[in-house]
Design brief:
The protein is globular, with a radius of gyration of 16 Å. The N and C termini lie far apart (43 Å). The chain is built from seven helices and nine strands. The protein has a single domain, classed as Vaccinia Virus protein VP39 (Rossmann fold, 3-Layer(aba) Sandwich). A seven-stranded mixed beta sheet has the order 5-4-3-6-7-8-9. Strands 1-2 form a two-stranded antiparallel sheet.
Length: 218
């Protein structure tokens, strides 16, 4: 099995290589510490644990994946989280990104449309001691109005366009990182910032490939 240290080295190299488009040539100490702390092998299927620390996405069942560690790190970096922040995540999956966010923010609310994945992630996060993560079974397109506004919003699945409900639930001065695109290999990772007047400013960060965002059937 590749080591955690090897994963961090691969992430560092990719962050440096993509600095021209992300604007980040290195990770902040907080994100580095979070990526070092979270045991990725706990979030992958047992039969794939030999690949747990490879810098690549892996299938987790139900047509979903655990994101590439570099992507997890750079998305967290671009959110520029403070330890007092409340974060909304769309797409819990196995809970890995939520665990990383939990190391950086005060509270993470995370939504998953697949009930079985949500239950597994909730049990896993609880077992590993991530007490500041609240997993909900819900439609990501609608967000979670009950706890809005959020300092940051992150999506780990791709809608065809940014859901308006999510921009409305973002706090003034807040940031959202979200992959957007119709086709899996023609998506863009977007960074949105809401200014103090409530206007949204959008920046195209990287070409990416995420699973589609799925709505709850009506």
């Amino acid at each position: 099995m590749q080591s955690h240290q090897a994963m961090m080295k691969a992430i560092t190299a990719e962050v440096h290589a993509t600095a021209y488009t992300t604007g980040r040539g290195s990770l902040s100490p907080g994100v580095i510490k979070a990526m070092q702390k979270v045991p990725r092998h706990e979030f992958v299927p047992e039969n794939m644990r030999d690949l747990a620390y490879a810098n690549e996405p892996l299938p987790i069942g139900f047509g979903q994946t655990i994101s590439q560690p570099y992507i997890v790190a750079i998305m967290a970096e671009l959110l520029a989280l403070k330890d007092t922040d409340t974060v909304l995540e769309i797409g819990t999956g196995c809970g890995y990104q939520a665990a990383v966010l939990a190391c950086l923010a005060a509270q993470v609310y995370t939504l998953e449309v697949v009930e079985e994945l949500a239950a597994q992630a909730s049990a896993r996060l609880s077992r590993l001691g991530y007490v500041n993560v609240d997993v909900r079974v819900a439609d990501g397109y609608a967000g979670l109005p009950a706890h809005a506004p959020y300092d940051a919003i992150i999506a780990t699945s791709a809608p065809e366009e940014v859901p308006i409900a999510l921009t409305r639930q973002l706090k003034l001065g807040g940031r959202m990182i979200i992959p957007v695109g119709t086709f899996r290999y023609a998506q863009s990772l977007l960074l949105l910032e809401k200014d103090t007047a409530g206007d949204i400013h959008e920046c195209d960060v990287l070409p990416v490939a995420f699973v589609p965002m799925v709505a709850v059937p009506s």
